[in-house]
Hints:
about 375 residues, alpha+beta, nine-stranded mixed beta sheet
Amino acid sequence: xxxxxxxxxxxxxxxxxxxxxxxxxxxxxxxxxxxxxxxxxxxxxxxxxxxxxxxxxxxxxxxxxxxxxxxxxxxxxxxxxxxxxxxxxxxxxxxxxxxxxxxxxxxxxxxxxxxxxxxxxxxxxxxxxxxxxxxxxxxxxxxxxxxxxxxxxxxxxxxxxxxxxxxxxxxxxxxxxxxxxxxxxxxxxxxxxxxxxxxxxxxxxxxxxxxxxxxxxxxxxxxxxxxxxxxxxxxxxxxxxxxxxxxxxxxxxxxxxxxxxxxxxxxxxxxxxxxxxxxxxxxxxxxxxxxxxxxxxxxxxxxxxxxxxxxxxxxxxxxxxxxxxxxxxxxxxxxxxxxxxxxxxxxxxxxxxxxxxxxxxxxxxxxxxxxxxxxxxxxxxxxxxx
Length: 386
């Protein structure tokens, strides 16, 4: 909205309405968007006596489709305001009303908006997070000032408290998702710009005001260096932040040690089960290659009960090796080491048909660390198959 104009909600269609910083926003949380093919929203605009002449209101509709952020820009609305009072406030700036139309046509001159200069500060090398809270909406910005990173798979993960929802603001060319209270930005080829910035907007589920004490966010930035995954924490601006170049060597060594320990444990398990016969006629298991990405099929997960691997194999009539892992408070039982998603998918289908494991599904790993199947497909350049 131009200066001197405010908005109040009329018909929201289940959206949360806010008006901050001259922006009227209708926000639908997941599952709350009307199911009808066509629906209307409306708001009331109040005009101060300081406004006169032609003003412009711009807007956009932003949504997620197939895990991608889509933006549909609305045509600007031109409104002729008749000022019957014949006076304008001293702080009224006619440029505020005309600048919006100029921006839409791409005719802006310099880095100015609403009569104010935009000051760009170059952050110190590393990864920082800034949080700006305006009532019941918070804007979270993550800046990666990187060195020697680019052209490979990368990911930003931001874990939010359970009462918050997040939508992408600037995705930096990534694929944005929000699941399990985690805002995630994924790149197949991370941009080679020296500084990368993404942002997202946060709102509480009940749309109440946000206090700094309750918005505690933990995050990490990870990327591939060769076949190794490097993970670095994201700290709030002003806190000590990691420098990428200094952390790459230590992080790589740490992951190598972890991978070595995992491989040692797996070798011991393989020796113990070496005498078992493979009686499967279908779902041939692929041997893992040098690629750090592989797939397994999860049979079940237990939160409270502790069952041995042999018990699970007997109950579900599994003759292959069963792996046991602790993940997010669950004891998860998986089967296989498939280098391709299709092999894991086929074996999952076999379990559905021939065993009691009717809820089995494909899980994915990178260097022994569980990731989403979508990430694994992106890293290994594989296609998803039904």
